[in-house]
Amino acid sequence: MGIRNQTQVVEFVLLGFSGILYGQTYLALAFLAVYLVTVLGNLMIFTMIQLKSSLHTPMYYFLSHLSCLDICLSSVTVPKIMVNLLLQQQTISYNQCVSQMFFLMSFIGAEGGLLAVMAYDRYAAICKPLHYSHLMNTKVCTILAFATWIIGFLDSALHTALSTRLDFCGVNQIHHIFCDLPPLMKIACNDAYINGLALNISGIFVGGGPLLFIISSYVFIMSSILRIRSTTGKRKAFSTCASHLSVVFIYYGNALLNYQRPSAGYSLATGTLISIMYCVITPMLNPIIYSLRNKEVKGALKKAMETWSPPKYHNSLC
Predict the structure, then answer these.
(1) pTM (2 decimals)?
(2) Which domains does the chain have, with CATH numbers?
(3) What is the pLDDT of residue 308?
C-alpha cells in the first residue's frame, strides 16, 4: 500500500495565516526582505571567513558552519511561505510536508549541537589556553563540526520514518505555518505514542544534552574569567563569549517556546508568531549579532567594504 493510501491525505492546509484576509502580498514581501537579509548576511560572514586568513581559527570555522545552517534553516521554510502567501493558497503536498519536516528537524538538531561545540571551543581557549592548539586542531574541529550535521540528520531521519506511520483519515488542516512533527501528531487519527516518546527522548539528548553541556562549559569559563586579575583581561575574555551567549539565549529561548508550549492557552496567532521568531527571525539575527559584537568580524567587514567600494575621483584644477 502506498503512502498516500495509508494517510488518505495528499496535501495539507496550513492554517497559520488563515486569519489574515488582506495584505498577504505585502506580508510575502516582508518575508522576502527577511530572507534576503538572512541569506546575504550569513553568506557574507561565510565568505569573509573563507577569504580572511586572520579568521582561519576554530571559533570562526564553527561560525562558518553556523552561517550555513542558518541559510539552510531559513530556506526550508521561508520560500514556501512566500509562495503560499502570493498564491493565497496555504497548501503543501504530503511529500513536500514530509521533506520539509525532515530538513527542518535536521538543521535544528545540528544547530543545537554546533552551539555546544562552540561552547567547548571557548572553554578550551579560556580554561586550557596552553593546550588549546592540541585540543582544537584541524582534525578535531572537522570531526566535531560534521558530527553535529550527522547527528541532526540521523535524529531527523528517525522521526521522519516514524511519522510515515501516522494516519490522518482525511483530516488535513495543520495549525501551523510549516510542517513540523508536533502539529502533525495532533491531527493523526491513530496512536502517536511512539512518535511522542521518540520526540521526548530526542528532546532530552539532542536538545537538552547540548544545553546542559553549554551551561557546564560556561560555569568553568566564568570561574576562569573571575580569576583573571586584570580588568582588561576579564573584558577581553568575556567579549569572545558574548556573541555566542547571545545566540544561545535566542536559539534555546525560542526553541523552548516553540516545542515546550502547553497544549492549551496558546492562540493560533501566538503560535504563528513564535514559529516565525524561531525559524525565520533567528537565522537573520545570528550574523547581525556576530557583526556587531565581535571586533575581528567588524574589522574584517570594514576592510572588505573598503576593498569593494569604488575608487573616489576628485576634481583638480589645471
Answers:
(1) 0.88
(2) 8-160+168-303 (1.20.1070.10)
(3) 54
